[in-house]
Structures are given as structure tokens and as C-alpha cells.
Automatic annotation (TrEMBL):
One of its GO terms (molecular function) is ATP hydrolysis activity. Keywords: ATP-binding, Nucleotide-binding, Repeat, Transport. The lineage of its organism: Bacteria, Bacillati, Bacillota, Clostridia, Lachnospirales. It comes from Hespellia stercorisuis DSM 15480. This is Ribose transport system ATP-binding protein. Signal peptide: none annotated.
């Protein structure tokens, strides 16, 4: 008889008096890979917190390995033996892979640590899943993929029968994602269970046995194995699908004849040949890095003027630097956390880049008052009085992208713009990026995984370690050798007239 590993039964949970989960029910079987698709992020962190620990419930029951661990009556003390893998590492820095997996696990009793012994103990686990990794490597030096594998192995060695992985496609490349799927399936076949949180049904379909749709702190629907089909999952995203489809239909009717305004040449050690690209006015170019080292190098090029790599940029035919250049803007990864200045008020946050355009913007308040009056009807007058940390996520995105529009750059570099965003916010980010393109601004998106970027792209450049870069124009997207979000729209659209 199949065993049930985890169950949440009619759980209602509040944090500081705020309702986060309501009548939440979900069960997971032994050896099952359960997909979880959050329509919005409300209650998602609370769900993960309830997996890891046992805070008091208002109502309902939680079972793990067929034993009750939490209920409205009482809760088990301490944390549950469940592994949580997210964008933030749980490994202890300054220690080796073997130390994190073996020495730090509960029950380790040896007072003398023998690295050679730990290495020999780890080797069978790595060999079993086909991963080459030194047990003596310090975890601070690991790539994102290696870090995820180590955290997963740490859970396996500790005997955790349930492992949650959240938004892996935003952290690692497509090639690494396929390797991770293989590792997950391998351990699922051995009886370990997994919860895989993903925002794209393509990821869920490739990996999961069932899928649950979560919205506003509630499980709306659970798709059974017989229902795990593309059309069933695609119907859940019908509004987003319709919006993107309309954009592509409109776009294929007009040819982008804008001039090339930006050209980049860079020599990155890990690449077989120099990275070269140019982009037109109003064009969206996606650069997908399939190698973590190359991705880090490109981040350094965009964010650090003192990079070790050779980098040359021409803007309107003239040499240019990114930093302190009005014509160039960079939208950082998870911008609502990295590009907001809580010590400044809303209007100062909004005008932060204006000093690149307008002299004395910080000396006189007249300009900022003018911005407030002009944009009050667009942004909402209430946001100007609120502390920026108290803005909604949507208002934060709106403020940052409006800041870019005020700057009026010619090219914007976006670093994984959809990372960490739920469905409703992904739709809004998509609309904000479209606004930049409609203004004739060139948009260059740096991505690890394609996610929603393909729905906006005119061209795609894939770069990988020791391989020449591969470029696809929009007509060639259907030949991309991976199952990526939005490819179905390019296959359905007529090819005639689709030009860059």
C-alpha cells in the first residue's frame, strides 16, 4: 500500500493576526514529485515556514510521515526533518562540502574529523547521480547548481524524506536544470518525495507527477496524473497567454527598421570566442548564459566598472561606459529589493537617475515638485506620502520602471527581470518592459533560464562555456532545442511577415 509522506488538512494560519493560509489542504505520497504553481505569492512563504517548523495553527492538522506534527490543538517542538532549497543557501560558509553534509548533521558524534574518511563516504553518493565534485571544496566557491546538489545530498544523507525546491529555473541554466530533474527522479524512485515550486507549466510538465494551483493562500485545484497535459495547465494562464499573443500578432505586422544604437564586444575567459552583439532601437535582445561562470562574468561587466575582463561598448558609434551614463540604464535582479532606497522618500527614489539628465535636480525642489504633479495621476497620489518600504510589490516595480523612463536611456540592460515574481507580477513586469520598447528604448535581457523573456524577444543569443555563441532570430525560435515557456505561440503564429 502506498504511504502518505505529508498532509496538510484544512489548515488556517495567521501571522501577526493576518490571515496567510485558509482551508489549505495538500497531500504528497511516497516517491511522488508534486508541482506547486503559485498564481500569486500570497501565503507561499507561510506554507514553506509550516513545512520547516511548527508555528501555532488557527485550525487544521499537519502530518509528516503519517504522524501528526502540528494542529490547532498543539504543535511538536523544533523543526521538521524536511529539506528546503531556495535561492538563499542553507550551507555554512567557510566549511567544505563534506563538512556541511556530514559533520553538521544531527547525530554526528565524532570529535576527530578525518577529511579522507568523509570524502570516501561522499563519493558513492556523487557517483550514483553522476556528479563530479570535490568533497573538500569550500561551499563559498560552488556554482548555484553545485550548491543545490549539495543541499539536496545533505537532506538525503540526513534521512529527510521530503525535499522542497523553489524556483530552480531562475537559479540555474537549462542544461543544469535537466541534470537536476534527473537527480530528483533518481531519488523519487528510491522513495523520497519532492515539492517543486515553479511558475511555468513547462517545468511542471517535464518533472512532476501531479500539480497544485495555489492562489491567495489556498489550494484552488490539484491536477491528477491523467490531467497533467499542456492544455490543462495552459488554461490556467489564459489571460497572460492572451496578452502575449496579442503583442506578438501586433509585432509581426511591423518590421523593426530602427538603427543599431548599441554594440558590445567582450572577451570572457570561459568563452570559446569573444561575445559580440548589437541591438536596434526598440528591439529586445535576450542573452541566455548556459554557464554560471559566464553569467557571473557578465554581471561583473554590467555592475562593476573595475572588471577584470576586456569590455568595449559603442553607443551611437562612440565609446561608452555604463556607470554614470544617462543613455544607459541597468535594472538589477529582483529590483524591488536591490534598487529601492528606504532612507529616501518616494519622489527622491523616483528622481534618483534624473541628475544624469537635469543639473541641480537635488539643489532645487522645483523639478521634483513638477515630477510629482505630472506623475501623480499616473502613479497614484497616495504613493508619494507612503514610506517606500510600505509600498506594494506592484507599486515598487512601477516606481523603478518609471525612474528608468524619466531617465530616458537609449538602452536598458535587465538582469533576470522576472526572477522571484509570481504570475500577477510577471504580467505587470512584462507590461513595463513593453512600455520601454514602445518608447523606442533598446532592451537587453540577461537570463539564466528563458522563462518569460522569450515572449518579448526579437532575438536570442545563447552562450556556453568553450562553445561559440548561437544566435536565433524570432523566426528561428521554434528550433530552440529546449522546452521553453511561450514557444507554443511562435509555433502557432504564421511565419509570413515575421521579421526583425
Amino acid at each position: 500500500m502506498r504511504k502518505e509522506v505529508f498532509r496538510m488538512e484544512r489548515v488556517t494560519y495567521r501571522e501577526n493576526g493576518i490571515l496567510m493560509l485558509e482551508d489549505f489542504s495538500l497531500n504528497i505520497w511516497e516517491g511522488e514529485i508534486m508541482g506547486l504553481i503559485p498564481v500569486n505569492s500570497y501565503g507561499l512563504n507561510s506554507f514553506i515556514d509550516l513545512l520547516a517548523g511548527n508555528p501555532p495553527l488557527e485550525d487544521g492538522y499537519i502530518y509528516y510521515r503519517e504522524k501528526i506534527t502540528n494542529s490547532w490543538k498543539s504543535a511538536k517542538r523544533g523543526n521538521n526533518r524536511i529539506t528546503i532549497i531556495r535561492d538563499r543557501t542553507s550551507l555554512v560558509g567557510g566549511m567544505t562540502v563534506a563538512d556541511n553534509i556530514f559533520v553538521l548533521r544531527p547525530g554526528f558524534r565524532k570529535s576527530i574529523i578525518q577529511p579522507a574518511v568523509l570524502e570516501s563516504q561522499l563519493e558513492p553518493f556523487l557517483k550514483e547521480i553522476g556528479i563530479r565534485l570535490s568533497a573538500r571544496a569550500y561551499v563559498d566557491k560552488l556554482t548555484s547548481f553545485e550548491r543545490i546538489v549539495v543541499e539536496l545530498l545533505k537532506g538525503i544523507v540526513a534521512g529527510h524524506k521530503l525535499i522542497l525546491l523553489s524556483e530552480m529555473s531562475t537559479l540555474i541554466s537549462g542544461n543544469e536544470l535537466r541534470k537536476l530533474y534527473g537527480i530528483i527522479r533518481h531519488y523519487a524512485a528510491q522513495g523520497y518525495s519532492f515539492i517543486y515550486i515553479g511558475s511555468h507549466f513547462e517545468d511542471i510538465l517535464q518533472l512532476c507527477d501531479r500539480a497544485a494551483l495555489m492562489s491567495n493562500g489556498h489550494i484552488e485545484k490539484v491536477l491528477q496524473p491523467r490531467e497533467m497535459e499542456t492544455e490543462n495547465l495552459r488554461s490556467l494562464f489564459r489571460e497572460y497567454d492572451k496578452m502575449v499573443r496579442g503583442y506578438l500578432e501586433h509585432k509581426k505586422e511591423k518590421k523593426n527598421t530602427g538603427k543599431y544604437i548599441c554594440e558590445v564586444y567582450s572577451e570572457i575567459e570561459e568563452m570559446a570566442e569573444p561575445l559580440q552583439f548589437r541591438v536596434r532601437q526598440g528591439e529586445c535582445l535576450v542573452i541566455q548564459s548556459l554557464d554560471n561562470h559566464i553569467y557571473r562574468a557578465m554581471l561583473q561587466l554590467l555592475l562593476d566598472e573595475d572588471t577584470d575582463y576586456y569590455w568595449r561598448m559603442l553607443l551611437d558609434g562612440k565609446h561608452a561606459k555604463i556607470q554614470r551614463n544617462r543613455k544607459i540604464a541597468v535594472i538589477q535582479e529582483q529590483c524591488t529589493k536591490t534598487m529601492i532606497f528606504p532612507e529616501m522618500n518616494y519622489v527622491d527614489n523616483l528622481c534618483f537617475n534624473l541628475d544624469k539628465r537635469i543639473r541641480n535636480v537635488w539643489i532645487t525642489s522645483r523639478i521634483r515638485r513638477s515630477v510629482r504633479q505630472e506623475y501623480g495621476t499616473i502613479l497614484g497620489k497616495e504613493v508619494f506620502a507612503a514610506p517606500v518600504e510600505e509600498l506594494t510589490e506592484k507599486q515598487k516595480y512601477q516606481m523603478i520602471y518609471t525612474r528608468i523612463l524619466l531617465q530616458k536611456p537609449e538602452v536598458v540592460f535587465c538582469i533576470q527581470p522576472f526572477k522571484g515574481a509570481d504570475l500577477s507580477h510577471r504580467m505587470y513586469i512584462w507590461e513595463l518592459l513593453e512600455q520601454l520598447l514602445e518608447k523606442g528604448i533598446a532592451v537587453v535581457i540577461l537570463a539564466v533560464n528563458l522563462a518569460d523573456t522569450l515572449s518579448l524577444a526579437d532575438r536570442l543569443i545563447c552562450i556556453d562555456k568553450d562553445k561559440p555563441q548561437k544566435e536565433y532570430d524570432q523566426r528561428e525560435f521554434t528550433s530552440i532545442p529546449i522546452l521553453a515557456p511561450w514557444l507554443h505561440l511562435y509555433r502557432e503564429l504564421p511565419r509570413d511577415g515575421r521579421e526583425n
